[in-house]
Diacylglycerol kinase family enzyme (Jiangella alkaliphila), 308 residues
Amino acid sequence: MRALVVLNPNATTTSLRTRDVLLSALSNDLDIQVAETTHRGHATELTRKARADGVGLVVSVGGDGTVNEVVNGLLDPAPAAGETIPDVAIIPGGSTNVLARNLGIPENAIEATGLLLDALRTGRRQSIGLGRLDDRYFTFTAGFGLDADVIKAVEAERERGRVSTVQLYVRTAIRRFFAQPERRHGVIELTADGGLPVRELAVVIVTNCTPWTYLGARPLRPTPFSDLNAGLDVFGLTSLRLAPTLVHLAQLTTRRGPRGRAVVSLHDRKEIVLRAPEPLPVQVDGDYIGERTEVTLTSVPRAVRIAY
């Protein structure tokens, strides 16, 4: 089988020696072409070309951002009727690797390669659903407002040379929380599946699986019933008052998830529309993608097949 290995050379947990070992192992079972990404969006460009060339498998070696770009390269433009798109494989190399951990793929790159080789030899594949925010697919989460604001600030720190760590995210989240102009109530309006709108949300996180992310080894579950084989789930807060917010943050670490008067929880929705009077930051799979006053999120069932 012909395969494209999309490799992020800046992946934080994959050494050059590890990459050499996994590429050698993959080349024993696959006819591989290796491409290193050089700029944002490059993995999408590479994957789109591989799809046009009839490659059977795209292997993402990197973090959640690399996986996201690969998925967008596979599905944009939308496949024609009857068109077969390549399968996807994930070898984690980022700092968090949320989708891989949700799927049970080992964080160790060599172990993940071994699992992939076994899947290739046995024909094992699993179809998963995705989310889509306007024209951008996401694999596990999208956010509008505060969480995207935190990611925007972290990306700015990384551009200044800071290393992405749990501590950096925590410090940035605290700083951006207190920088919010209005914490007593929000400005976001949410409409799900054409129902009645929910107004004055201060934060909205949309998920495609659970956990939503990890604080080190600890999983965080704002939407504990979210499922890759179901629709989209929503976690929202109508207030960011300090004491209740701290309680809700602690509840993220439990299997029941957040609960209380300020919590809005929606499960298994097909379409979600979010609006705000002024542009707010937007993120997909942990990547800041700009500011908008309105976004539409849709569930896309059985969108890609994962080999693992």
User: Anything to note?
Assistant: Residues 190 and 266 are 11 Å apart (CA to CA).
